[in-house]
Design brief:
Keywords: Signal. By secondary structure, the protein is mostly helical. Helix content is about 50%, strand content about 10%. A three-stranded mixed beta sheet has the order 6-2-7. The protein has a two-stranded antiparallel sheet with strand order 1-5.
């Protein structure tokens, strides 16, 4: 995606987020002041899954701290150890980021499925409450025609009077903190069916009848007055769950939820079970990322062999080579997890750095910084200062690899007669002799004086001119 595309997608996301926030503000929150157990339970499930699939910031901050330490430490052994550690933490972060992204995508889909299913269930739950309004001993049937409308109870119309938006409830987490239902409850899916009882003497059903008085309404022996017996219209039955995998009930108590049909029921069961799995799996924080937790990691073995042992990496290592690598890990990062925590990691966390270039900027211990943005600023400054230090130590000097100079000043290092030639000569017998400069000490001084002039010629040259001169080389790169 281009930078323009990223900007457009970011802007779109910001606009959508703002619209949702405004919509939530306009709702006012009254509809969620007393959420039903089923709605609260659904919100808690979503909240738990969101928390479980959040980015693993701990590993990323450990990586940033190790990278800062690598740039600031003056201990070369610690710097080399930090290089391999940063590589390990980078791989952990990448793997967990991919896992987290996949899990968050799954959690988002499940949350949408659950929210949609609960919207339907909420309406069906209201319909279950619908009841006919009772009327006893109306005007006698005889005489002129009389009419009476059959109505629903004022508070039991079957029409939802409110709606608790799950997103609104998730924003008000205080309602979800005390005694969380997701730990103790489980959904019990039910389907609606009409009350099956037929009309008759004293039947438990809504009906018109020749009315009696009081509690004997709609029983035998009625007068010639018309009456209406009030009663609910619907009851429930166990939902058809098909082959959906139901969450284990164990010691959980049930929360009734009304579903429309088998498809609706299976959607709720799947979302509930999968969100519970995500909430308890916690993939992003399964294990802390440390050298000892990854002591058998092939990629970490490659780093240790290459960076710490200074040997070429191989596709496979022998048992002896593997032992050498693991011994090096223990030698550098501590013999066990505690050794690592109290050793290199402690030195990293105790390192003091600044988040600004100003000389007056206050240094802070890395362990006290829990903001990724600040750690990134610290890393950028540490890298810049390290680069500046390397640059300031660079200089133009004579090329000491010149074979003529090597020969003129290292005659004493030649121990065999057939090696002693050029500006050197062999004095004494082949067995007891030695290699000396031609012309003795005076000859050696002349050679060194020539080299000194060469150093003077190179000194002070800037990098472009230095690299062009065959007798000079640029040191510090």
């Amino acid at each position: 995606m281009t930078s323009r595309g990223l900007k457009q997608s970011t802007l779109t996301a910001m606009l959508v987020s703002a619209a949702l926030e405004n919509a939530g503000a306009q709702l006012g929150g009254d509809n969620c002041s007393k959420p039903t157990d089923s709605t609260k339970y659904a919100a808690e499930l979503i909240l738990k899954a969101q928390a479980a699939t959040a980015d693993d910031s701990t590993t990323r901050m450990d990586k940033l701290r190790a990278a800062i330490f690598k740039e600031t430490t003056t201990n070369n052994q610690d710097r080399v150890a930090a290089v391999a550690l940063v590589n390990l933490l980078s791989r952990c972060e990448k793997a967990r980021r991919h896992t987290g992204t996949s899990s968050r995508t799954q959690a988002t889909g499940l949350a949408i499925k659950l929210a949609h299913a609960f919207g339907v269930a909420e309406a069906l739950g209201e319909l279950k409450k619908a009841a006919i309004k009772g009327e006893s001993r109306m005007t006698p049937i005889s005489g002129s025609p009389k009419y009476k409308k059959i109505e629903l109870e004022t508070t039991k119309t079957g029409i939802p009077q409110g709606h608790c938006n799950l997103q609104e409830l998730l924003q008000d987490k205080a309602k979800l903190i005390s005694n969380p239902l997701e730990k103790t409850k489980i959904l019990d899916q039910k389907e609606l069916q009409q009350v099956a009882t037929g009309a008759g003497d004293g039947a438990d059903v809504a009906m018109c009848c020749a009315a009696n008085t009081g509690s004997s309404m709609c029983t035998s022996g009625g007068q010639d007055d018309l009456g209406i017996k009030g009663h609910g219209l619907f009851t429930t039955k166990a939902a058809n769950k098909g082959k959906a995998k139901q969450l284990a009930k164990t010691d959980r108590t049930t929360i009734e939820i009304i579903t429309a049909n088998q498809i609706h029921t299976e959607a709720i069961i799947h979302a509930e079970e999968a969100l519970h799995e995500l909430a308890t799996a916690r993939p992003a924080a399964a294990q802390p990322c440390t050298p000892h937790k990854h002591i058998s990691d092939p990629n970490f073995h490659h780093d240790v062999r290459t960076i710490l042992l200074k040997k070429p990496a191989k596709d496979t290592y022998s048992e002896q080579e593997t032992t050498e690598i693991t011994q090096k890990i223990k030698a550098v990062y501590g013999t066990d997890e505690e050794g690592y925590q109290n050793g290199l990691k402690k030195r990293i966390e105790e390192t003091q750095v600044t988040a600004a270039y100003a000389s007056s900027a206050q240094a802070t211990k890395l362990k006290d910084i829990a903001d990724e943005d600040i750690l990134e600023d610290m890393l950028a400054i540490a890298m810049a200062r390290h680069a500046a230090t390397d640059s300031s130590s660079a200089k133009c000097a004579s090329d000491n690899s010149d074979p003529k100079k090597e020969e003129s000043t290292s005659c004493k290092n030649k121990t065999k007669k057939d090696e002693c030639h050029g500006p050197c000569e062999w004095k004494g017998t082949e067995k007891d002799g030695k290699c000396e400069p031609k012309g003795g000490e005076e000859g050696l001084k002349a050679a060194e004086k020539k080299d000194d002039k060469k150093e003077e010629k190179c000194a002070g040259k800037l990098e472009p001119d230095c690299t062009k001169a065959p007798e000079c080389k640029w040191e510090g790169k």
